[in-house]
Amino acid sequence: MVCLQVSAAKLAIVIDDFGYRVKEDNQILALPAAVTIAILPSSPHGREVAEKAHQQGRDILIHMPMKPLSNQPLEKDTLSPSMSAEDIDQLIKNAIKRVPYAKGMNNHMGSEMTSSLPGMRNVMHSLSQSNLFFLDSVTIGNTQVKNAAKEYGVPTLRRHIFIDNHQSEEETRSQLNKAVAYARKHGSAVAIGHPHPSTVRALQKYLPQLPADIELVAVSSLLSPQPADKQPAKSLRMLSEEAKQPQNSESSTPPSATPEEEVQVQPEPEQEVTTVEAPPAELGLCEFETPKNKLQGIDFIMFVVEGIYHDKALQPLLLKD
Predict the structure, then answer these.
(1) Is 103 contained in some domain?
(2) Residue 137 located in a structural domain
């Protein structure tokens, strides 16, 4: 038996929609530096907030507006699947200039955009030129973020919990508890919230009392390298031509969760499907082997204790007796 060191589960909290609410933004910036912020590139105070966050050593994301399926007022320079590759690339470059020190990008709304494979290919091509990662807010079940990112070697993460779909301190605390539970089960979790007054109050009270087995981390610390497929990189002209073609059945399917995904929480106010990736392989404290001989006494008791983490291996022994 080889025992492994057990480390704390990691929780990343990202606060979207920065750059408009000066009071709440500053209150979030007073929270631990591990809390990541996502800044809307066209916001009036975005650059100022980015400078402050950078001085704190805080992770900064570009909260890029993307077109939703629902009919809602759109931010300036919202990305749409109908845009050319050149236009998308230019808007992303402009956003990078407006949000200095950004390490990555996540989507603001974007159910229509993120479910478009040609559209997200354009986004990933641009991000690959700037060495930025992408955090998928997962506002629709058939998101094409991961598929597009793989083609260009863009590292990705995805959101697991929204903490403030309902703006109440009690609800936010409940969702934070769900995020902690998810992190314990899967090793890490990404939770997204917004600078609502109720969210600020909940975080101010919750984070100082974070359980000892949970580590609050910057979202970029959860990244793992994602190499590009062995395919030649596509030019902006090729991407533009692809975007004009009708989408295949995969990218035009209704917004529903795929079989390997589980519905976790209520989605953003955009009323879109919330999904999470299938859980990784089951975690245990020790490498475990089924004994070759029948166990007795203390040996059997120790085997049962270990079997708590590996009940599939324990079952054959119990059936024998």
Answers:
(1) yes
(2) yes
Report yes or no on 120 lying in a domain: yes
**Residue 141, domain member (yes or no):** yes
Do 192 and 321 lie in a common domain?
no
* Identity of residue 219: V
Longest dimension (CA), the chain: 72
**8 Å CB contact between 55 and 33:** no
Under the banding of pLDDT at 50, 70 and 90, the label for residue 83 is: very high
> What's the CA gap between 286 and 211, in Å, rounded?
23
Domain of 191, in residue numbers: 9-244
List pLDDT tens digits, range 243-281.
555 443 333 333 333 222 333 433 444 433 333 333 333
* CATH at 121: 3.20.20.370
Give the model's pLDDT for residue 225.
54
Six-digit token pair at 227? Answer: 């190499």
**57 shares its domain with 133:** yes
314 Cβ contact list (under 8 Å, min separation 6)? 303, 304, 307
Q: What pTM did the predictor assign? A: 0.72
Domain count of the fold of the chain: 2
Question: How far is the CA of 273 from the CAs of 9, 215, 263, 276, in angstroms?
Answer: 26, 28, 8, 10
